[in-house]
Amino acid sequence: MVQPNVAERPHLAAPASSPRPADEILIDAGRLTALVHDVLLRAGMPPDEAALVADALVLADLRGMQSHGVLRVPIYVEKIRAGGFRPGRKGRVIRETASTVLLDGEDGIGQVLTIAAMDRAIDKAKANGIGAAGVFNSNHHGEAAYYVLHALKRDMIAIVATNGSPNMPAWGGKTKMTGPLPFTAGAPTNKEEPFVIDAALGVTNRGKLIYMADRREKIPFGWGVDRNAQATDDPAKVLDGGWILPIGGHKGFGITMFIEIVSGVLTGALIGSAIRDLYNAPRELPQGLGHFCIAIDPSAFMPVEQFKNRMDDMIRMIKSSDLAPGTERMVIPGQLEFEKERNRRANGIPLSVKLVTQLRVLGAELGSDRTV
């Protein structure tokens, strides 16, 4: 997928860089995409699906969302080989109205199914002003912002919801019932960076914990607890029977529950503790996830260019705020990710030596002549 054009937008200085860890190397995005595409192709994905998934995973790394990037490739390959992920499924229509559609994902690839759902939502929004598409019988779909960015390219306001592996209890409980699900939405602009928010409703997310545990990094107290519900700064202890805490306490859990409702209950997908974990479940079992996409056509309310100019005006108004002490600049949701993407496309993606070695070994095992 091609990203929204940012070439004509005002240049924003990249965030100050910090020293790179000794166990990390810079990898060219193009070479990484080629390797991941070839690995997925050889694992059994059709060419179009392999290209889409490779693009989505590498873009997550480009945007700094390493928790949803190429570190997922090994488990994806394992699930494909075992039959838990079934390539070649594009979403079978189960129920449809003028503005809504429900798709059976038939245990297909999450990225493929969510793009299919968003495309259908966009088509319905173009015809009716708003469109919604739900998916059930799906699997992990990576960074949810990918589908919002896809809609922004077509001048749509977009909202994406998904449920996920149960690794967080209901507020006040100890039984894991849901995940720190993401709230993801975006709106197109004209000259300014698009507004994009992709925020896990847990203080962090499982993928980030895996990433940090692999690097033996500490997490701040307040991100999660261990299996005994005790605060910890060790991500491995959160992963080993502990759980991530919701943002905003009971309020964050309430929003999480609503996302579970639209992506799981409404679509007919598995919900809560019935969902199968991506890692800690037999590889031959699909996850049973649900996704929900909403597209809104601004032209149903005003000319698109007028809406995008108004978005620019709002963003500029916010950025003109007087700065509080200690604040260097005003930042709009999504801005830092666009800056990081530009920087990493030019200079390379930082990946751990361990992960790069895993990808090289996996590629060689599958007979790929690609390398990074």
Model description:
This protein is of the alpha+beta class and 372 residues long. It has two domains: 19-82 and 345-372, Hypothetical Oxidoreductase Yiak, Chain: A, domain 1; 89-202 and 246-318, 2-Layer Sandwich (Ribosomal Protein S8, Chain: A, domain 1). 38% of the residues lie in helices and 17% in strands. It has helices at residues 29-43, 47-62, 73-82, 110-128, 145-152, 206-214, 235-239, 250-265, 304-319, 335-347, 353-365, and strands at residues 24-27, 92-96, 100-104, 130-138, 157-162, 168-169, 176-178, 182-187, 195-200, 224-225, 243-244, 289-296, 349-352. The strands form four sheets. It has a seven-stranded mixed beta sheet, sandwiched between helices. It has a two-stranded antiparallel sheet with strand order 1-13. A two-stranded antiparallel sheet has the order 6-7. The longest helix has 19 residues, at 110-128. The protein is globular and about 55 Å long.
